[in-house]
Design brief:
Strand order of the largest sheet: 2-1-3-4-5-6
Radius of gyration: 16 Å
Helix content: 25-40%
Order of helices and strands: EHEHEHEHHEHEH
Shape: globular
Distance between the termini: 9 Å
Oligomer: single chain
Mean pLDDT: 96
Strand content: 15-25%
Largest sheet: 6 strands, parallel
Number of strands: 6
Amino acid sequence: MTSTHMIVLPGGGYAAHAPHEAEPVARWLGEIGVQASVFRYPLNVRHPVPLDALRAEIGRRRAAGAQRIGLIGFSAGGHLAGLAALAPGAAPGESVDFAVLGYAITSMETETYRPARLILLGEDASPRLRRSTSLDALVTPQSPPFFVWHTAEDAYVPPEHTYRLASALAASGVPHAVHMFTHGPHGLGLAEDAGEAASWTTLATAWIHEQAPPPG
């Protein structure tokens, strides 16, 4: 039987860890039969420090017996999840099997939550650095499957971020699901009582079970 573990990466603009995107998400994953843990990656540090820390955590989870690793990240945590899933340079034990991104920062080249970009890349980041930390630039036909969701009203991370990533995934033939909900602010987390957007967890449950069939 395949052992799957999901790592939860809360958002917070690379300056904080949003509590409602941490343990509540891990509890929800447990309720749908998926082992999960929260990883509080380093804050207020430059790239690639958070990525290196997450890769080390993935390696620890694999060493502890996880055969499949999934990531679920929100906002800046979604950006980090995407980097770990897509960026070259991971060791063999640091690979990611699938990823779930909620209202994620995916591009460092377009309009986004500027404080997060300044923390991660600095004021004078080169075009090359901004490109190399943009998820759409890192997709290849070998990339793992993605589930991506966003709201069209997001004022902090425009929905263009999800469209850019989705277009890149489609162009490379990478399996993916994309859900854009009409209403809702940035930072919904599990989106309970948030109208249509609340359905993302139901949609994601079915998708996650495709990637990681529940035991039994």
